[in-house]
Amino acid sequence: MILGRSERGKAPVEPVTLKILVAGGFGVGKTTMVGAVSEIKPLRTEERLTEAGRPVDDTSGVEGKHTTTVAMDFGRITLREDLVLYVFGTPGQDRFWFLWDELATGALGAVVLADTRRLEDCFPAVDYFERRSIPFVVGVNCFEDAARYPVEDVRQALDLDPEVPLVLCDARERESVKEVLIGVVKHAMAYAATRRQTVTT
């Protein structure tokens, strides 16, 4: 006897999928962040840094870095049975920015990862998401050898709008990364609600 849906329980749920980007400068920890939170083995497109790339890949401040993302990083996290989050890490160097438009299509929001030792490296990512009206959160990756600054000082240095969340995080720690991603979802929902209200008034 084949049991009906009411006897078996709920029908299989087709999950809603959301996309979040992780962007920022070269060597800021984007690949690490995606890997820390992904429930699957993350897809990575890393290549070794070479002498030929030395003039364009500035490793000052991240001298221990030997690889770089050349297309994207990809990870997945299931928030609920009916809600799955796809996390895409963008390449950091200027020469790969043509990929950003493709990755940004359909994105709910973004994390702009920042390193206080090279804060200027995240300016292009901030500008990118502001120009395209994609809601984003700035996550300051707290490297062990980086100076600690008050959140408001970092906010002022980045010239962020007051409504843009800025949080301290550790890209190596799963719980820390989850909090950042939850912040993106909450900010994106508030951003969408504000835009709807603006349209209807």
TrEMBL record:
One of its GO terms (molecular function) is GTP binding. This is ATP/GTP-binding protein. SUPFAM superfamilies: P-loop containing nucleoside triphosphate hydrolases. Keywords: GTP-binding, Hydrolase, Nucleotide-binding. The keyword Hydrolase applies. It comes from Streptomyces montanus. PANTHER family: ATP/GTP-BINDING PROTEIN-RELATED, GLIDING MOTILITY PROTEIN MGLA. CDD domains: Ras_like_GTPase (cd00882). Belongs to the GPN-loop GTPase family. It comes from the Bacteria. InterPro entries: Gliding_Motility_GTPase, Gpn, P-loop_NTPase.
